[in-house]
Design a protein that fits this description.
Number of strands: 2
Radius of gyration: 21 Å
Structural class: mainly alpha
Strand content: under 5%
Helix content: 55-70%
C-alpha cells in the first residue's frame, strides 16, 4: 500500500509521504504511524542511539578538559579514545541504518568543535602548547563559523554537509 517499507535491517518501518499541509501529515502519522511502529520490533527506539552517543561525548568533554588541565595524560588516554570511538560509531550507525536526524546533524559538529577547540584552549592555558598554536586553530574555527553564519543569514546556503577536507583538517 506504499506506506510501509523495510529498512536495511529488514524491520518494517513507515515511510510517510510528503504532504502539503502539516495538519494532514500529522493526521496521517497518527493513524497510520501506530500500525507501523507496533510492527517495528525491538529496533523501534534504537534510532536515537547516534544522538545519545553524541550527547555522551558532550557530557564527557569537561572531564577530559580537567584531565588535560592537570596534565594527567595517562588517565586521559582511555576516555579520549572512547570519545573517538563514539564519534566514529554514531556516524556509522546514523549512515548505515539511516538513523540520521536533524538534531544529530547539529549536535555532532557542535560536539566535535567543542572538543577540538576546548582541547586547544585548555592545553594553551595550562602551558602544554604554545598560545599562538591555539590562537591559529581557534581563529580558523571562528572564521569558518563566521562564514557559515554569514552564508546562512544571507540565505544562499542552508546546509553544510561534512567534506573530506573538513574531516582531514581535524587531524
Amino acid at each position: 500500500d506504499g506506506i510501509r517499507d523495510r529498512d536495511v535491517t529488514g524491520v518494517q518501518t513507515c515511510a510517510l509521504p510528503i504532504f502539503r499541509s502539516d495538519a494532514l501529515r500529522n493526521h496521517y502519522a497518527r493513524t497510520v504511524g501506530r500500525h507501523c511502529r507496533s510492527r517495528a520490533g525491538f529496533l523501534a527506539g534504537v534510532n536515537h542511539l547516534p544522538n545519545l552517543l553524541t550527547l555522551a561525548r558532550i557530557a564527557l568533554t569537561p572531564y577530559l578538559f580537567l584531565l588535560m588541565w592537570r596534565h594527567d595524560y595517562r588517565a586521559l588516554l582511555w576516555p579520549f579514545a572512547l570519545v573517538g570511538v563514539t564519534d566514529v560509531l554514531d556516524g556509522f550507525l546514523a549512515r548505515h541504518f539511516r538513523w540520521q536526524s536533524r538534531l544529530g546533524a547539529y549536535l555532532d559538529p557542535v560536539a566535535d568543535k567543542l572538543l577540538l577547540s576546548g582541547s586547544f584552549l585548555v592545553l594553551a592555558l595550562s602551558d602544554a602548547i604554545p598560545g599562538w598554536l591555539a590562537a591559529v586553530v581557534l581563529g580558523r574555527d571562528v572564521l569558518i563559523l563566521g562564514a557559515a553564519g554569514g552564508l546562512y543569514l544571507a540565505g544562499s546556503r542552508r546546509s553544510f554537509p561534512p567534506s573530506l577536507w573538513g574531516k582531514l583538517s581535524t587531524f
